[in-house]
Amino acid sequence: MAKFKLDEIDHQILDMLIENTRVPFTDIAKKLLISAGTVHVRVKKMEDAGIIKGSSITLDYKKLGYSFIAYVGIYLQNTSQTKFVLERINEIPNVTVAHITTGKFNIFCKIRAKNTEHAKDVIFQLDDIDGIYRTETMISLEESINDKKRLMHSIFNEM
């Protein structure tokens, strides 16, 4: 597949969509002084090229009562159990992210919970999965940086 070439208009469209995925194409068009049809065509091309994959919303988990964040490093008895363990982890809705990793842990997860008691229950669910040898948990005191736009701008500057 040929590398898709983004221009400055594409960068600006992506910038606005990352800020708010629900922004109408007509609003983007007005700000960029182009037609809404042009925005639609460019977004469609970026979707077809796999640069844009769906859209999402950002939830305020604190307002929903899930302000507790912890990271759990998982040690497996055998690396051959990775797929099985990930399938079991996927059944626990409070595990919001899971990575297969190198180094200290075989799998590294992010969990969201209501409080420490709830987090303990989630961690115990992880511990009960066949194939997990042990876990190591780190509590997040504060999410200080969560900014997709900085990386996006850095990527654009490299192009």
TrEMBL record:
Keyword NAD annotated: no
Keyword Transcription belongs to the record: yes
Annotated InterPro entries: ArsR-like_HTH, AsnC-type_HTH_dom, Dimeric_a/b-barrel, Tscrpt_reg_AsnC-like, Tscrpt_reg_AsnC/Lrp_C, WH-like_DNA-bd_sf, WH_DNA-bd_sf
GO terms for cellular component: cytosol
SMART domains: HTH_ASNC (SM00344)
SUPFAM superfamilies: Dimeric alpha+beta barrel, Winged helix' DNA-binding domain
Keywords carried by this UniProt record: DNA-binding, Transcription, Transcription regulation
A Gene Ontology molecular function term of the record: sequence-specific DNA binding
Domain HTH asnC-type: 6-67
Biological processes, Gene Ontology terms: regulation of DNA-templated transcription; response to amino acid
Protein name, UniProt field: Winged helix-turn-helix transcriptional regulator
Organism field: Oceanihabitans sediminis
Lineage of origin: Bacteria, Pseudomonadati, Bacteroidota, Flavobacteriia, Flavobacteriales
